[in-house]
Design goal:
This protein has 346 residues and is an alpha/beta fold. It has one domain: Alpha-Beta Barrel (TIM Barrel), CATH 3.20.20.70. 45% of the residues lie in helices and 12% in strands. The protein is built from 14 helices and 12 strands. An 8-stranded parallel sheet has the order 4-11-10-9-8-7-6-5. Strands 1-12 form a two-stranded antiparallel sheet. A two-stranded antiparallel ribbon has the order 2-3. Strand 10, helix 12 and strand 11 form a beta-alpha-beta unit. Helix 2 runs parallel beside helix 3, helix 8 packs across helix 11 and helix 12 crosses helix 13. It starts with a helix and ends in a 5-residue tail after the last strand.
């Protein structure tokens, strides 16, 4: 029965994200407050601009991740298959949705396994929630099982305290989370990435994560999907204060990036990343990769993998044009180009 409830919740989440207005209403990702400095003396050859980068010791064609979305339902399996096809064509990483339903129940394993089977050799990321990390008894064995299920190149732990707080069947008990995360980092053989789900990761929280050995941080800031809105809709409730709770993505990228002066970790920008301009600005603010979920979910359900490929290629054509106009012939230079706050222009 518990597994049936988890599966139904995943179906609810998919349906709401596809059919309802679950975005933040008043808060944005903040990237609109920045501008690129135009370089009138650019000497970059447009057709020689290199968009590739390295992630999890693999070369990928674009600094972009198809973010963790779904799994654990029949519909999820079809969606994941199409997303994996797109990731393979584009040669970019892909994450699976929470694998919680795969623990102790093999009936939905195929909805996760299909990602590795279809994505080929691109980096594939597993996924489990913080609430499970905090209380799993055989935590190392359980995480290894989830990694092996999809031959994961890394494991994502998602932090979602606001969602758990508002979820009808939520588990807002994270006692022991940091200690268990540290244990995982020391004993699991693949990199550990920690992400939020739309409320953002602050610099102080990121510092604690880096200090215990986390390899990557996906800030997943406010400005895109509000999972508070999703859970409030499931309860037919409205609470504008908590619906809009969170740190804007741009703020998280800019401040967490400051930790790179003394620490090595991969910084991923997500949270309202919906076009090539958002991607380019995120990288210029310090992110190594950008990531998106809901807008890609909409595209894959309408136009399958072909639509996803066309969408992301279009975004990176925009990124390429921005790089030409800022005299950047590779992603590493874009990462250092810097941005101007709009208020400084007037």
């Amino acid at each position: 029965m518990a597994q049936d409830k988890i599966s139904q919740r995943k179906k609810d989440h998919l349906q709401l994200c596809l059919k309802e207005e679950v975005m933040f209403k008043t808060k944005t990702n903040g990237l609109e407050n920045y501008e690129f400095e135009h370089n009138a003396l650019t000497e970059v050859v447009f057709n020689k601009i290199d968009l590739s980068t390295s992630f999890l010791s693999k070369k990928i064609s674009y600094p972009f991740l198809i973010s963790c979305m779904t799994g654990g339902t029949d519909k999820a399996e079809k969606i994941n298959e199409q997303l994996a096809i797109a990731a393979n064509i584009l040669n970019i990483p892909i994450g699976v949705g929470s694998q919680r339903s795969a623990l102790g129940n093999k009936s939905h394993h195929s909805s996760y396994r299909v990602v590795r089977q279809t994505a080929g050799k691109v980096p594939v990321l597993g996924n489990i929630g913080a609430a499970q990390i905090a209380k799993l008894k055989n935590i190392i064995d359980e995480i290894k099982l989830l990694i092996d299920l999809i031959e994961a190149d890394a494991m994502v732990v998602h932090l979602n305290p606001l969602q758990e707080l508002l979820q009808p069947e939520g588990e807002p008990d994270f006692k022991g989370l940091l200690k268990n995360l540290e244990k995982i980092c020391s004993k699991i053989h693949v990199p550990i990435i920690v992400k939020e789900v739309g409320s953002g990761i602050s610099k102080s929280v990121a510092k604690k994560l880096v200090d215990i050995g986390v390899d990557g941080i996906d800030v997943a800031g406010a400005g895109g999907t509000s999972w508070a809105a999703v859970e409030l809709m499931r309860k037919n409730e409205e609470d504008i204060f908590f619906r809009e709770w969170g740190l804007p993505t741009s703020y998280c990228i800019r401040t967490v990036n400051e930790l790179k002066k003394n620490s090595r970790f991969t910084l991923i920008a997500s949270g309202g990343i919906n076009n090539g301009v958002d991607i380019a600005k995120s990288i210029a603010l310090g992110a190594d990769l950008a990531a998106s979920a809901r807008i890609i979910l909409h595209e894959v359900t309408k136009n399958s993998s072909d639509g996803v490929v066309e969408l992301i290629e279009g975004w990176f054509l925009t990124v390429k044009k921005i790089m030409f106009l800022t005299n950047c012939d590779n992603i590493y230079k874009l990462n250092k180009v810097g941005l101007i706050k709009k208020r400084e222009l007037y």
